[in-house]
Specification:
This protein has 804 residues and is an alpha+beta fold. Helices cover 22% and strands 25% of the residues. The protein has 17 helices and 44 strands. The relative contact order is 0.08. It is found in: Cell membrane; Cell projection, Invadopodium membrane; Cell projection, Lamellipodium; Cell projection, Ruffle membrane.
Amino acid sequence: MDLKLLSIATLLGILCSCSAQQEGSDCIKANAQSCGECIQVAEKCGWCTDADFLKQGESKSARCDELKSLITKGCSKAKIENPRGSISIDKDKPVTNRMKDVAEKLKPDQITQIQPQKLTLNLRSGEAQTFKLKFKRAEDYPIDLYYLMDLSFSMKDDLENVKNLGTDLMREMQEITSDFRIGFGSFVEKTVMPYISTTPARLLNPCTSNENCTSPFSYKNVLKLTENGQQFNSLVSKQQISGNLDSPEGGFDAIMQVAVCGDAIGWRNVTRLLVFSTDAGFHFAGDGKLGGIVLPNDGKCHLENNMYTMSHYYDYPSIAHLVQKLSDNNIQTIFAVTEEFQPVYKELKNLIPKSAVGTLSSNSSNVIKLIIDSYNSLSSEVILENNKVPEGVSIKYKSICKNGMVGTEENGRKCSNISIGDEVSFDITIESQKCPSQGKSETIRIKPLGFNEDVEIVLNFICECECSKGGEPLSKICHNGNGTFECGACRCNEGRIGRLCECSTDEVRTDDLDGNCRKDNGTDICSNNGDCVCGTCECKKRENPEERYSGKFCECDNFNCDRSNNKLCGGHGRCECRVCICDANYTGSACDCSLDTSTCLAANKQICNGRGTCECGVCKCTNPKFQGPTCEICPTCPGVCAEHKECVQCRAFETGEKKDTCQRDCSYFNLIRVKDRDKLPQPADQSYPLSHCKERDANDCWFYYTYAVRNDTMREVYVVETLECPAGPDIIPIVAGVVAGIVLIGLALLLIWKLLMIIHDRREFAKFEKEKMNAKWDTQENPIYKSPINMFQNPSYGRKGVVL
């Protein structure tokens, strides 16, 4: 029976433990075998280097746990290895405050718009490092602008307006920068069928009628970037239009060459603008198959004598390929296209960062205004991008823009509406989730799109603990040199296992070794709570880091002890090998029995009010009719006052039911008489229970007394010596009142009857009058009335009638 109860209690304890435990520690679940493995699990994990930390049955991985748990288990803080990440700034040149009207001009490489320029981050897995990056637009920043124009036949009138673009644009750009260069290039289409006509005549002059056109070409670099606007005008004025067969043009081939042929174009490390002017759509990757071209564009420069020579060999570049090359070379693109193709190029703009679309008039007369507006739009926005980060590393951006506007997620990469001289900042958070396979440093770069400056970030990964540097290779502690003793534990050589590397992996499963892990030659290996490694039990870990198995055969644990109030050992002890070790003043199998009697004291300072015993801090009442925390409540008792009424009445006033047996039955208390109620004892004056009573005798007289028990035996009754009897009633006023009431009621009834009769008579009279008024006929109008008079005329008597 006892065994069954113990099993049920144990089962309930396990169920309660499962419901109460928190999510298991990631540090323990990782089963780390070394300090280096431990610190890579999570930021919260630490490694105890104390050589005596492990208890019997615990594996090396028990050294890896959360810091609080390690301290709770007895590892001193000084013995816990828990390296932290750090940030160091290697280059921190302040941003440039450059003024346009200053005589001394700075070179482009002397201008700084982003700060800092280089950092080193020491990253630990799971621990994020955050630094601030500042950006400030410099005034009078140099600009290189390359004008790339479609010279197909439909752009004939546009070419005339572009011929004076150099000097006019130079003049307008002087308002923005004093260091401006301009270049020019043109494109038509791939020089193969079906994009152009390959007949000899059409190759010389692809235009119809009498138009004099130049031979078709793919891309031509007409003018390298120059400060000479007149030279731009001169060379552009010499250009001739060409022609092709299909509507889409080969502009993507030209953009690719402009982007990658930096030396031929003359790009400097300044703001780079590419103006792409056309009135048609574009071919892209895959369209080359129509001309039998299947090789993908290689993204390399193929200019010979300023002409693109591989258009017939390589396909058009894809949009993604263009985006990559434009970004790599910090080129911002302005698409100057006609109204008809605005929707197409706006979609393209959404795919190419730092690009703009302007509406070109039919003859390109508004091209200067379009370029300036587009440049202002592009330069007022800064967007950060980074190159490919190592596997397991993540970057998060948070922008703090003008007027305190904060952006997160994708909006955290950019700030808009930035004027010259405005300073914005970005909080950049870099976090590593694991060490790279080679454990080497990595370098990433963050830069604002369209600018030549960037931030170099060197990432060093914390993959090993400092204590591992002082490790002892081939240590005798590790079973005669089968491992390196580092960080308080053995790191076993390949092919060796065990806490001290005492076993070979080939010997792990032998029956002889397993026999050492069976308690009392039983069948269970390590009590089914662990694994037998090299003839030694290594106990399993629990998801709850506070719970663990221990013992030579893992037969003990600290979570299967008796519980009270759903708490292990009642919350007043610790569980060791399934037995509660109680704190002071507690006892019992679940430490739920308190030896403190203060909870049993009644209001009179007596233990259980003198009616019981104090057991485990709770009163056990000896008289079953009493109950309550201190045996003060008696729900079935008649009450103190009613219980002693008859005895008080007979002894104080010699009346009542017990007046004949008063001496025999009522001598158990000491009677004390007082003159009035004010002399009775009050509860606040006493240190023992006191009851105030008010009772009535057979004559309806009240008497007052108190009943108290002093020192558990001495009973005292204080009684007021005079009775309070009610005075008799006064008969005369009562009789007079009754008679007067009857008379008044009679008069009231008469008056009510008289009033009702008057009302009735008046109603009858009014009814009569109404009927009288309604009678509208008289005797002359009575239809059944006949007159009693008859008239007859005597014919012989003067024609006079005779009335009878």
